[in-house]
Each structure stands twice: as C-alpha cells, then as structure tokens.
Specification:
- The strands form two sheets. The chain has a four-stranded parallel beta sheet with strand order 2-1-3-4, with helices on both faces.
- α1 packs across α2, α3 crosses α12 and α6 packs antiparallel against α12.
- The longest helix has 23 residues.
- It is built from 13 helices and eight strands.
- The chain is of the alpha/beta class and about 400 residues long.
- β3, α5 and β4 form a beta-alpha-beta unit.
C-alpha cells in the first residue's frame, strides 16, 4: 500500500437542493451576505422547480466519489473519501467533524472546479479555514487543496471525443463542418474576479485557462477533419446586480448573433451549433437548464441545428486524472501531467492568489504569503523528489 502524507480525502463541491422545500433555503445560502430578496431568488428557483426541486449534483458527486474510490483501490491507495458541500447538505463542516472523529488529521481536498478563480478555488480555501475555526478543529486538522486540473488530458479527452462525435453526427445529417460553429461555454464571473485570478491577483487566469483548454480540444481534431469549424468561448449563468460587469458574450446572445448573420445572407451561413460545457465537470442544473433548455431554445428560434456535448463526468479518463492528482501529492517525484502551454498549476496558492477584495484578505487554509514562499515550497518538493529518487536507487 502507498504510504500517504495524507490520511483522508475531502471531496468538496457547490451543493444543490434535494427537494422543492430546499430550493429557496439553498439559494439563500448561495447568496448569503448579498441582500438578495426571495422574490429575486424565485427567478432562479424556477430552474430547480422545473426539475422537481432536486439538483442532480449531489448524486453525480457521489458517483464520482464511488468511481474514484474504485480507481484508487486499483492503484493500492488506501485513503477514505469524505463528501462536503459549500451550500447544502452534506456540508463541509459535517465532513470535517466526521473525518476528525475517525482519527484523520491531514486531508487532501479535491473540488469539482477545474479552473482558477475566486469562486472556483480561493473561496473553497476560505471556507476550509472558516469551518475549521467554527468547528474548533483549527490546529487539529490540516487541509491542502489540490491543484486546478483544467488541462489534465484526462479531463479534456472526453470533451474531444464529444465534439468529434457531435460534428460527425451533424455531417451525417448534411451539415458541412465549415457551416458548424463550436461554442465552448463556461460560467460567467464578474470582470473583477477574472482580472484578479492568478497568483499575484492580476492574472486573468480564468479566461486564459479556458482558452488554452479550448485550443487544445480543437487541436486534437485537426487530423480528423478536412475543414475546421469556427469556435469561440462564450459564457452562461450570469447573476448579480445588472450594473456590475461580467464576462461576455452570453451564449444566447451569440446564438442570436449567428441567426442575424444568417438572415443577412452572408456567405457560408452557419447551419448548426455544437455547445461544449468546457467549464463544468458534470451535467448539473446549470448545464441542463441553461444549455439543454435555454440555449437549445435560442438555437431553435434561429433555425439552427443543436448538439450539446456531455461533460467529463464519470468517464474513466477523468476519474483516472483525479487519481493522478491524488498520487502527485503522495509522491512528489511523480510526473505532474498537464497539456497546453500553461503547464501544471502549483499546489500551494499565494496569499493574494485570486483575491477579489484587495486589502481585505479573508484567512485561507493552505496558503502562503508570497511568490517567494511558493518558490521555496517548490524547491522543497524538488529536494523531496531527489531524495526519494536517491533512496530508490540505493
């Protein structure tokens, strides 16, 4: 069996309601501290209510955990996995109390967000610090969050296959590839949050990482397609005050624009769109509603054929990618697998990494104070790897 530096895994996610009575309380948790009235929450609640008030995200996460447990077992990695959400049961605080009661003290956190940003990374680390404090476990339990995995080939390979299959299917129906538009969709965030994403708080990592992932996916299709379709990165699920600028363009606006271009009888009119939820790990409500319902309806209104690619979900390659990341932490000499020009993101976040409110930093678990400390941490990893290699050779 592997001898871990860690004695448990915390699988952390966003959470979702399990029934109609949970919808508004769940949305209150999501918007806590923003002063959003219930009447505004009801607008979003309609998406959940149309699906019976139950988000599929918890069930999907349990399926991911089960598959990961099986994959780790085949690799002889014996680490129990605890499941905790930010906004609904099972809550992260409950998971921390359970793992502590079971005797675990050093925890590796995997989260269901592949990209770097405040909401997708730093906020989880702030949550961990706050919940350790509130549960009285600060100093008792240590949590380290794993790196972002947006460009692990195991996360992107299922996406490549999905885009290829969608284009092939459309071609069979008579839609030439040069008349298909590929729309890579991700969750919109405030411009300020994107601008602050990165190790110095001035990086635009969120957009840059998505674009790198999109380019990789399309590059894998060059040998299969005589003509490459046009593609672009679009956004969905915008929320918040209307006066606050968020990342654009919205996917529905882009589909409407394509329809306008077609009506102008421009050469090479687009006949179909392939929508790729590149920013998401599973087919939860924001994929099912915002894409399968709203974006599909927009495409129908513009008389465009529509295909939506599945998320990576429980594809065996994505599960293997998560297991790879676990093993990176257990063995510093293990290769850190990553594609695209951006390479593997470091494990340890800087003090200002993805910090939105400059000068008002919220304490985080597993953060360092400067880029110099990150460099020191990396040197320690290199020394540990060299020591492990020397020990294996002797």
């Amino acid at each position: 069996m592997a001898t871990p530096q860690y004695d448990a895994i915390l699988f952390a996610s966003f959470g979702g309601p399990e029934g109609q009575d949970d919808v508004i309380p769940f949305l209150r948790n999501v918007t806590a501290g923003r002063g959003v009235p219930d009447e505004r929450l009801e607008e979003v609640a309609g998406h959940y209510r149309a699906l019976g008030g139950r988000s599929p995200i918890n069930e999907q996460n349990r399926a991911l955990i089960s598959a990961l447990e099986a994959e780790l077992a085949t690799r002889e990695v014996d680490l129990p996995i605890y499941f905790g959400n930010r906004n609904w049961a099972p809550y992260t605080a409950e998971a921390l109390q359970s793992l502590h009661a079971d005797g675990h003290r050093r925890v590796l956190a995997l989260i269901t967000s592949a990209y770097s940003s405040y909401s997708g990374c730093r906020q989880y680390r702030e949550d961990f610090a706050r919940q350790l404090d509130e549960t009285g476990l600060l100093g008792e339990v240590e949590i380290e969050k794993s790196r972002s995995y947006f460009n692990h080939p195991g996360f992107l390979a299922p996406v490549v296959d999905g885009v290829r299959a969608a284009l092939t299917d459309l071609e069979r129906e008579g839609h030439d590839t040069d008349r298909v538009r590929v729309l890579f969709s991700t969750h919109s965030i405030p411009l300020a949050m994107n601008d602050a994403s990165g190790p110095t708080g001035e990086g635009s990592w969120y957009v840059d990482q998505h674009l790198a992932a999109c380019r990789y996916v399309m590059d894998q299709l060059h040998d299969d397609l005589p003509v490459m379709p046009e593609w672009e990165l679009v956004y969905q699920s915008r929320s918040g005050a209307p006066h606050v600028p968020w990342l654009e363009p919205d996917i529905n606006d882009v589909i409407e624009r394509i329809g306008t271009e077609n009506r102008a009888e421009q050469a090479g009119a687009t006949e179909a769109v392939v929508v790729v939820p590149i920013g998401f790990v599973t087919d939860h409500v924001e994929v099912i509603w915002d894409l399968d319902t709203e974006a599909k309806e927009s495409a129908e209104e513009q008389q465009l054929a529509f295909r939506r690619v599945a998320t990576s979900g429980t594809d065996h390659r994505f599960i293997a990618a998560l297991a790879d990341i676990v093993q990176e932490h257990l063995d510093p000499s293990r290769e850190r697998i990553a594609v695209t020009e951006l390479g593997a993101v470091q494990d340890v976040c800087g003090h200002n990494c993805c910090q939105v409110n400059a000068g008002r930093a919220v304490p985080t678990e597993q953060g360092v104070n400067s880029l110099q400390e990150i460099a020191a941490h990396l040197r320690e990893q290199e020394q540990a790897a060299a020591g492990a290699a020397a020990g294996a050779a002797s």
